[in-house]
Design brief:
With 223 residues, the chain is α/β, with parallel strands linked by helices. It has a single domain (9-147, 188-222), classed as Rossmann fold (3-Layer(aba) Sandwich). Helix content is 44%, strand content 23%. It is built from eight helices and seven strands. The termini are far apart.
């Protein structure tokens, strides 16, 4: 599915979110920058948007982006080459639930809009914990369900009725953006996701809500 929509993925992300997703990624990177991490893992990197944002804002960093969809990585590689970031960012095809890296290798991990797609969420989080050094942090940017009226109702209506139609017209994929709504509905957001982080081996977990709770950045520190 992600291979099928790879060429339209970036445009649809920015168009359907009205560009807010760019601001959310920048917020995550500002938080990451305070940690002064220089070897960063970007899981479910897709077309590399988050990795590119981090590389441009954290000048001395080295970033490894992994994704299972080879066509998404191909688009990301072109973007990295165009921005002359090849010495900073390396992309690899890999399964997020079986990461091909040593234990205690990275000093930060991040993922934007990817954990919803893990076949086994707990295994994916545990793998990110494994490859992080002790006291290093994870940053997860993900959609969450707003709680207040009328934002919750408007958000639900947009995700269920407008976004899938627009996504289908532009991407020519009949399932991708219907899947998006369903995956957001099923995702264990809020305190439930913080519990999953703790189960995976993280402590000092925290959620920061963005844009009235439409999205959240979750954080945790490896014990």
């Amino acid at each position: 599915m992600f291979n099928n929509i790879s060429n339209n993925y970036d445009f649809l992300n920015h168009f359907l979110s009205m560009g807010i997703d760019i601001l959310w990624r920048r917020k995550l990177v500002r938080m990451l920058k305070k940690q002064q991490a220089d070897y960063i893992l970007d899981v479910a990197t897709g077309t590399g948007d988050l990795a590119i944002t981090a590389a441009t804002k954290i000048k001395n960093s080295k970033i490894v982006g992994v994704d299972i969809a080879e066509e998404m990585l191909a688009v990301g590689q072109k973007k990295i080459k165009q921005k002359n970031l090849e010495t900073q960012i390396r992309l690899e095809q890999a399964d997020s639930e079986n990461l091909p890296f040593k234990t205690n290798e990275f000093n930060a991990a991040m993922v934007a809009f990817g954990v919803r797609n893990f076949e086994n969420l707990d295994q994916g989080l545990a793998e990110m914990c494994r490859v992080l050094k002790v006291h290093s942090k994870i940053y997860v940017l993900e959609f969450s369900m707003p709680e207040k009226f009328p934002i919750r109702q408007l958000y639900h209506f947009y995700f269920k009725n407008i976004l899938p139609v627009m996504g289908r017209i532009i991407s020519k994929d009949r399932t991708a953006y219907t899947y998006l709504h369903d995956s957001v509905q099923e995702f264990p957001s809020g305190e439930n996701f913080l519990d999953r982080l703790r189960k995976a081996g993280f402590q000092n977990t925290e959620q920061r809500k963005l844009s009235f709770g439409i999205a959240s950045i979750y954080m945790g520190e490896k014990k």
